[in-house]
Write a structure and sequence with these properties.
The protein is an alpha+beta fold and about 425 residues long. About 25% of the residues lie in helices and about 30% in strands. Among the domains are: about 40-50 and about 290-360, conserved putative lor/sdh protein from methanococcus maripaludis s2 fold, CATH 2.40.420.20; about 50-60 and about 195-290, Efflux pump adaptor protein, beta barrel domain (Elongation Factor Tu (Ef-tu), domain 3); about 100-160, Helix Hairpins (Orthogonal Bundle), CATH 1.10.287.470. A hairpin with a 2-residue loop joins strand 14 and strand 15 (about 305-310). Helix 1 crosses helix 5 (about 400-415) and helix 2 runs antiparallel to helix 3 (about 135-160). The chain is elongated, with a radius of gyration of 44 Å.
């Protein structure tokens, strides 16, 4: 038994020695076994021509809008269109009770027949001097009045079925069957709007216009071709179809100090709807030898604007910059950067001042990946998981050989055995 206890003690001491050696075997930070520096997306600063743009708020409007109203009085019998559908000009929309107007038309036709008969009898009598010229003129006037009354009766009967004044998309019906319309007013029945193309109204500050004009006159900037504009939707996406500037007001609004502008955009798929708020990307001027960087690369703090720059050795350092206007979604940098600088666009959370990183060219079409260690369920799958112990499910079962099972069972054996010699006494 003493030999057995001695062997168990030796195995325990060997296991403790191995556990003490493991921490010492870990690679030191920055050594050959250290994790590689994190990758960051960078853009290399270069100069080139750029068009200064300004995003101006605006509202979408139909290019043409027509209100369908009741022209005669009566009760609506039936709606003749599908709400929200595209209709052509002249399509019947409602049917109003027309019995009264049909009776008026019949009476007007009878009056016209009577007036025409009287007038036709007086014409040969006038040649014979059997009637006076005054009687003949009165008969001619009554005949013309009867013709006018008949035309009015026909028009009222036609208006009992109001047609679509323009082609476009019709909205919901504002009246239902059985409603009395046209009683003392032209009741609004429905609205038709033309959505292709669609109009956008926006305004620009007059002070900005003056500042741009002065810069162009001084030769600092060139006047941009403002005929083509772009549209930014409410969710920030860029509408694929470019628009055309159609109208610029000649007066300044005294309440806002801005000038009204209008642009038209193609809308073949009816994606743009009237009443929607949007932003119009309006070209202002062209600049030569401009430095532009993505907007997401610039950070703003109480100290001002800054970017993170990677030097030739991969070291990160902050760089204060001063931005001017916008060129699409990019900033125009006026000072703080020079051609050849590497500016970090993605991975700013991994780039601390003084840290070493691996710059990778930025691909605007590539989506940024998850942060280091996020969602890594397998040990060693990312830089942040190195040095961490695997989960319990990944630990292989211990072999059942005596050298490995000895250390685990030794403590319990020592507790139960008691002092040496107890087993001999038993």
């Amino acid at each position: 038994m003493k030999i057995t206890y001695a062997l168990l003690l030796l195995v325990l001491l060997a296991a403790c020695g191995e556990g003490e050696k493991k921490p010492a075997a870990a690679p030191a930070a920055g050594g050959p076994g250290a994790p590689p520096p994190p990758e960051v997306d960078v853009v290399v600063v270069a100069t080139g021509a750029a068009t200064l743009t300004q995003d101006l708020p605006g509202r979408l409007m139909a290019i043409r809008s027509a209100q369908v109203r009741a022209r005669v009085e009566g009760v609506v019998e039936k709606r003749l269109f599908a709400e929200g559908s595209d209709i052509a000009a002249g399509t019947p929309l409602f049917r109003i009770d027309a019995r009264t107007y049909q009776a008026n038309l019949s009476a007007a036709e009878a009056d016209l027949a009577s007036a025409a008969a009287s007038f036709s009898r007086l014409k040969p009598l006038l040649e014979l001097k059997a009637v006076s010229q005054q009687e003949y003129d009165q008969a001619s006037a009554r005949h013309k009045q009867a013709e006018a009354a008949l035309a009015r009766a026909r028009l009222d009967l036609e208006n009992a079925v109001p047609p679509a004044p323009i082609s476009g998309r019709i909205g919901r019906a504002l009246v239902t069957e059985g409603a009395l319309v046209g009683k003392g007013e032209a009741t609004h029945l429905a609205t038709i709007e033309q959505l292709d193309p669609i109009r956008v109204e926006f305004s620009q500050s007059y002070s900005d216009m003056l500042r741009l004009q002065q810069a162009v006159k001084a030769g600092k900037q060139k006047a941009a071709k403002a005929a083509q504009v772009r549209l930014l939707l409410e969710d920030g996406t860029l509408y694929p179809e470019p628009g055309t500037l159609r109208f610029t007001d000649l007066a300044v609004d005294p309440n806002t100090g801005s000038v009204l502008l209008r642009a038209e955009f193609p809308n073949p798929r009816r994606e743009l709807l009237p009443g929607t708020f949007a932003r119009v990307r309006f070209p202002q001027a062209e600049v030569e030898a401009a430095i532009r960087i993505p907007q997401r690369a610039v950070t703003v703090s109480p100290l001002g604007q800054a970017v993170m720059v990677v030097d030739a050795e991969g070291k990160v350092s902050p760089r204060p910059v001063k931005t001017g206007g916008m060129a699409g979604t990019d900033f125009i940098v006026e000072s703080g950067l020079k051609p050849g600088d590497q500016v970090i666009v993605n991975g700013l959370q991994k780039a601390r001042p003084g840290a070493t990183v691996k710059p990778v060219p930025w691909d605007p079409t590539r989506k940024p990946g998850p942060p280091p260690g996020a969602g890594a369920g397998v040990p060693g799958s990312g830089p942040g998981m190195q040095g961490m112990s695997p989960p319990s499910s990944a630990v292989p079962p211990a072999p059942t050989s005596a050298p490995v099972s000895g250390p685990a069972s030794a403590p319990s054996a020592k507790l139960e055995s008691g002092p040496p010699g107890a087993a001999e006494k038993k």
